[in-house]
Amino acid sequence: xxxxxxxxxxxxxxxxxxxxxxxxxxxxxxxxxxxxxxxxxxxxxxxxxxxxxxxxxxxxxxxxxxxxxxxxxxxxxxxxxxxxxxxxxxxxxxxxxxxxxxxxxxxxxxxxxxxxxxxxxxxxxxxxxxxxxxxxxxxxxxxxxxxxxxxxxxxxxxxxxxxxxxxxxxxxxxxxxxxxxxxxxxxxxxxxxxxxxxxxxxxxxxxxxxxxxxxxxxxxxxxxxxxxxxxxxxxxxxxxxxxxxxxxxxxxx
Length: 253
Description:
Elements: E1 2-4, E2 11-13, E3 31-35, H1 45-57, E4 62-68, E5 75-79, E6 82-87, E7 91-93, E8 96-98, H2 102-108, E9 110-118, H3 121-130, E10 133-140, H4 148-163, E11 167-170, H5 173-177, E12 189-191, H6 205-218, E13 222-226, H7 235-241, E14 248-252
Parallel strand pairs: 3-4, 3-9, 4-6, 9-10, 10-11, 11-12, 13-14
Antiparallel strand pairs: 1-2, 5-6, 7-8
């Protein structure tokens, strides 16, 4: 394991390095718990990131994912070899699922690594209430942007939670430098860019045919937007800008 210092760009050895073999394989199967809002088949960027991460970890770790259900009931499922615990959701406030059952669940868990995906105020409150054992790793995907008035109410919880983290992961140095939250925690933040599965982007004969169909329909110059239609994507700015661009905009959610 290595981390990249966001301030100097140096590669620093992890404290766990001495416990790994020359191939970087741990000599034991650590128990890892991922805590998120939702998991597949629920769509979303963080959900997709967590899914791909767990696909690579499931054969190397004793892995569990704990998230909220889309209904007020509990379920334990096997999702392509990953144990997924879905806790009852009783409400959703400001994009945050409210699952009080996460607190007693975390009190009972004994993990080597607890990996929490933010923003997720419910997970932060649950962690601070339960005080589970194990190293705390936080993937910090975004500041809270739209609900700034609500963030002011809970920022003390957020700062306390991040101060307990052994490592905080950000995707780019800019995420750290321009975040009023992460800039306070540069000493424990490492940069790990988002990965993709290369096979998903290979130009197969079928995809080449589809590209040809799109160019025949919309012309040779196409701007293709793929993502959920949510406020923080800023798609309205792209749409306004198209009046100055010699191309067709294709939007896919």
